[in-house]
Amino acid sequence: MCIRKLFRYAANYQNRSERRVMITVNNLGMQFGGQWLFQRVDLQFLGGNCYGIIGANGAGKSTFLRILCGELDCTTGSITIAPNVRMSVLKQNQNAYDTYSVMDTVIMGNQHLYDVMKEKDAIYEKPDFTDEDGMRASELEVEFAEMGGWEAESDASRILQGLGVPTENHYDLMADTDPRLKVKVLLAQALFGNPDIVMLDEPTNNLDIESINWLEDFLLDFPGMVIAVSHDRHFLNTVCTHIVDIDYGKIKMYVGNYDFWYESSQMVQAMLRNKNKRNQEKIEELQLFIQRFAANKSKSKQATARRRLLDKLTVEEMPASTRRYPFVGFQPERELGKDILTVKDVSVTMDGVKLLDQVYFSVGRTDKIAFVGENELAQTALFQVLMGELEPDEGSIKWGVSTARSYLPKDNAAFFDGNQEELVDWLRQYSAKKDDVYLRGFLGRMLFSGEDAFKPVNVLSGGERVRCMLSKMMLSGANVVLLDQPTNHLDMESIQAVNKGLIAFPGVVLLASHDHEMLSSVCNRVIAFQPDGTIVDRYGTYDEYLAWVEQQKGR
């Protein structure tokens, strides 16, 4: 977290004990198909705080959020929300507002304000304006002004621009709006109008990094309460004052951001393991003494005393966490030589749009490069050129003879759709070792255990497909890895595993991602794709690049 955000985080965190309770959760339980998702949950959410909800896939994060905002009834217990509180929720249905303009959709984030505005406008448009209409319009004008109605469009426009929606699109119909912008419009709707509580389910999904940074800044300054489900570690670290962890069929709240929760939880687990180990060693020591001296009269009293002590000793069963971490590790079969890659004056145009314009750069043997920028099509086009899947309009690329490449594409459908092969057979074609024992052991480390190894690959989920592609890459022995948005569809545990694997990898990395934490911890160079198809090439960490961008804006 940058220093400026750190100070703002600390300022917003102060005096939380003085903030009133906004939501009370009492003895909450949720059951699906006879199985408890979670139960006996007692929590209080205070105004002014930001709560990040975390947990493994399937643990119930989105379900819990839907219960809190009243979209879903719980099996047991109750949710109490403070009176006179306005709650705003990030909508998931992108087509729900297709008949409205972008501006109207955002203002509908405060539905009462929108209704007052429309009723007022309808009265003024009446051809037979009566005295009663005049009185009603006067009442509406007062209410409209009190709710900040005259600033509504400018406020909505400010949020839209911050999220990267151009001003020329603010009065377009939602039906005619690019789906990538629709996501931002619905987020702007949730943030509009100073609600008391904002509920956000994966708010950073499909956002470019500049929009994520703007959202973090907005939430740091936001005076209300935020509850957000997210797998974005940097986002959770930047904005959250509390972490709400769903695991072991329980929901617990912890003070601090994600990193504080993670380090604390790992420490507790280690302490518990050590305690159990010491207890087990003591039990074995006492059992051995009892066996040796139980029949010895001179030692019988000591043996009896130790048997009583043994009865009191128990090995605490480690709770079975729902979190599962795959193993991701890339081991190159050969070292890289001096020459790695030269990209010379490459240009690519698609559908009349120039994605790459005279792109030129070379790659060194120690480079781990972050590909960033709003134009993801340009990033994907360059990956395809580098892998020989796309012929550039002009220019050339040259790989060094010592390089062996492996690629994780953004769209992996061609590897799975229509393919009814069992997973173990699908992986066999990419492995030098063909025996089932090796392949099933490898799949087990990637969380495909037991019968999962025999699932047809065309029924795999998005996250399972990405884990398969990572398995394929690991088996390749490549010394250069190219990854286009590898965190798409992955849960936080898998993202952390990929992150660690790329940090430890001794070869060259070319990485396009929205994951701030991954870019910051892995990469030592940034290539930023510009709207006109050119690039900006900067050596240094991703955070250093962002600081440089801010410095350029200030000039």
Task: Describe the structure in your own words.
There is one protein chain. The protein has 555 residues and is an alpha/beta fold. It has three domains: 3-261, Rossmann fold (3-Layer(aba) Sandwich), CATH 3.40.50; 262-312; 341-416 and 460-553, 3-Layer(aba) Sandwich (Rossmann fold). 40% of the residues lie in helices and 21% in strands. The strands form four sheets. A six-stranded mixed sheet has the order 5-6-7-3-8-9, with helices on both faces. The radius of gyration is 28 Å and the shape is globular.
Write the layout of secondary structure elements.
Elements: H1 3-13, E1 21-32, E2 35-46, E3 50-55, H2 61-68, E4 76-81, E5 87-89, H3 102-107, H4 111-124, H5 131-146, H6 152-162, H7 179-191, E6 197-201, H8 209-221, E7 225-229, H9 233-239, E8 242-247, E9 250-255, H10 258-293, H11 300-312, E10 341-350, E11 353-363, E12 368-372, H12 376-386, E13 394-399, E14 405-408, H13 423-428, H14 436-445, H15 462-476, E15 480-484, H16 492-504, E16 508-512, H17 516-522, E17 525-529, E18 535-539, H18 542-553
Parallel strand pairs: 3-7, 3-8, 5-6, 6-7, 12-16, 12-17, 14-15, 15-16
Antiparallel strand pairs: 1-2, 1-4, 8-9, 10-11, 10-13, 17-18
Helix pairs in contact: 4-5, 10-11, 16-17
